[in-house]
Amino acid sequence: MIRSHRAIVLVLGALSAAAAGGTPRLEWQPQQSGVSARLRGVSAVSDRVAWASGASGTILRTTDGGATWQRRPVAGGESLDFRDVDAISAVVAYTLSIGPGGASRIYKTTDGGDRWELQFANTDPKLFFDAMAFWDPERGIAFSDSVDGQFVLLTTVNGGRAWERIAPDRLPPALPGEGAFAASGTNVTTIGRTLAWIGTTAGRVLRTTDAGQTWSIVKTPVRTGESAGIFSIAFRDATHGVVVGGDYKTERDAVENVAVTKDGGITWSPVTDHGLSGYRSVVAWIPGKPQNLLALGPSGADVSDDAGLTWMPVAEGFDTLSFAPRSRTGWAAGDRGRIAKVTIHD
Description:
This protein is mainly beta. It contains 1 helix and 30 strands. The strands form 6 sheets. Strands 8, 9, 10, 11, 12, 13, 14 and 15 form an 8-stranded antiparallel sheet that branches. It has a 5-stranded antiparallel sheet with strand order 1-7-6-5-4, with no helix packed on it.
């Protein structure tokens, strides 16, 4: 068990004046993770429980609101880079490691991380899995970079105990080299029991309305390039969504890196003169505030109070973010093992 120091609570004063107009005040509390690895995955379950994951086989869990963080390693996984973790509860969680060939794996624990079951072990040297998301505790989807012009997606089978590939003929063709950026575990998102969206490096969004049985794809106005494209996608409901990204090699540039949809991802509109202060690797809707979004990247964080049309810088940067469902609490994580608890105040 790793005990945290008494951290000074950092209150975002820049938001205090705006709170009366509907923008919440966000309270950031730095916490001591006890690790130095870069953390790219985080999943908040409640105001007490959250999981985080990252490089060098790092998997962490808190059950006391972040006062302490415990290491929950995968046996034999010390060299893996766990870029995504999706937690169901304090005892049930899935984690995905990235990399070519056998480095891409999916594990599941049902005992709080005491033991991890290897559910999927990639054997194709051409595949490189990036992220996953879940409709419910037993039904999820995982996405790999494309191979030979075909997208590669997995869905759970046998009640979430195994994974199988979606038949390629159910998917539209991929562009050359099209895949996803494994930067925050948030380029795949789900809503309800059947809706899912995936943002790609080519600035396109894959969409399913029947839990992966059929798929369509549409181009967004997000800028693309060798190191640019969509990095994160989030939906408030079945119709309202946002994508963010940019170029991770030029972190402070914010050119053509936001787009929004009001029709479930069928069409996307560019957002210009938005005020977003740089490349952003993750975006999330703020619980209980249907017009409010928070976007983070290594160079900073920005908040929106008009569903993504305009943004205001608010804090230092992190790589990833997760708010707990039906809660006023979330966690952000980033380089050097940094973790901060985010509390929403009206």
